[in-house]
Request: fold
Amino acid sequence: MNKVYIVDGARTPFLKARSEPGPFSAADLAVAVGKPLLARQPFAPTALDEVITGCVIPAADEANIARIIALRLGCGKGMPAYTVQRNCASGLQAVANAAEHIALGRAQLILAGGTEAMSRAPIQWNGAMVAWLGKMLRARHVLDRVRVMGRFRPAYLKPVYSLLLGLTDPLVKLSMGQTAEILAYRFGISRETQDVYALQSHRRLAAAFDAGYLRPELETLYGGDGKVYTEDTGLRRDTDLEQLAQLKPVFDRKYGLVTSGNSSQVTDGAAFLLLASADAVQRYQLPILGEWIDHDWAGVDPGQMGLGPVHAVAKVLTRQRLKMSDLQQMELNEAFAAQVLACQAAWASEEYARKELGLDTPLGAMDPERLNPEGGAIASGHPVGSSGARLVLHLLQALRRKGGGQGVATLCIGGGQGGAMLLRVSGDRP
Reply:
């Protein structure tokens, strides 16, 4: 297999969804980050072999959004592009597909990542309203239309929020937050422990911004209204444990522990990376940000979907004959504080290792100082199509700043899956 290098990457600031559609479409976000990323390369956008984009909720006029992005970025009409969807890991799936293509020698340069405008998720008519509209369209005569109009009921106007449907598993009938409640109960994770972890996420992200650690990966967003975005807008610098403790449970209002404060945020954002073969690195004299080593996927009970990373990481580390202590950093997507803490508990559990992972000994929990040391999605947000690419980008930039090493980017995936990617940073050129 050919070696695969990540030579550059960038992301937008992540914008927390408010009570109205955000200022950028998913394609706008991707172009806003893709233009400066490609502009600083020594090759033309047409030199790419492919564009691969993760996106979960593209707008109706953004079908195969990857192709729209490729054309808007000036990649040319001959540029193939396709969109992937693996729920929360769509951005990671795009990077994984690109790595596989290059490893097999089928491509030399690929732009891969993800984009999402969750604030613009469609609001739909319910089934009764759709049926009534269909009858209205079929009514050819005035009297027929009057009869149909007489059957209209105000309840038909009740909207259907596609985002809420998408965050609920249709088989087990549980929202993602409810699955986090199950994990909190299973591993005995208290409300206070979750809030402490959430506060840590905000403080770590704030410290990373203040130290300039995130500057190499961020591209400024310029809104049509003159607003400029340079920082993740979901970051709450002034929050504390007292404020977090006052928030009410969202998913189990009577007995629950999961709140808006210890959960990730509904967010808009994009993140992309440039992947290259050794030949492309030599031909264009490209800098090397890091190297793709391996990745894998796993399936788990949809009712406990947050444990997906436990299984995916175990598969990658076992195949590579590595231990948790061999990792200099792990970026584990913070869908919920309970989910991150549950993964840590499962990795440390002898019983879980034996019964669930088929291992003789547990992998051991990740060193908390090396787990999301610059914060995570609880503070920055979780635009589902792009989060996987952001994890890869940030992990590589962090390892580079710290002198190199290897790490894992991993996510839980709605529907009961997990994904993990092993990456390495060194100063060696191919």
Summary: Residues 124-162 form one domain. The CA atoms of residues 202 and 236 lie 6 Å apart. Residues 191-210 form the longest helix (20 residues). The radius of gyration is 22 Å.
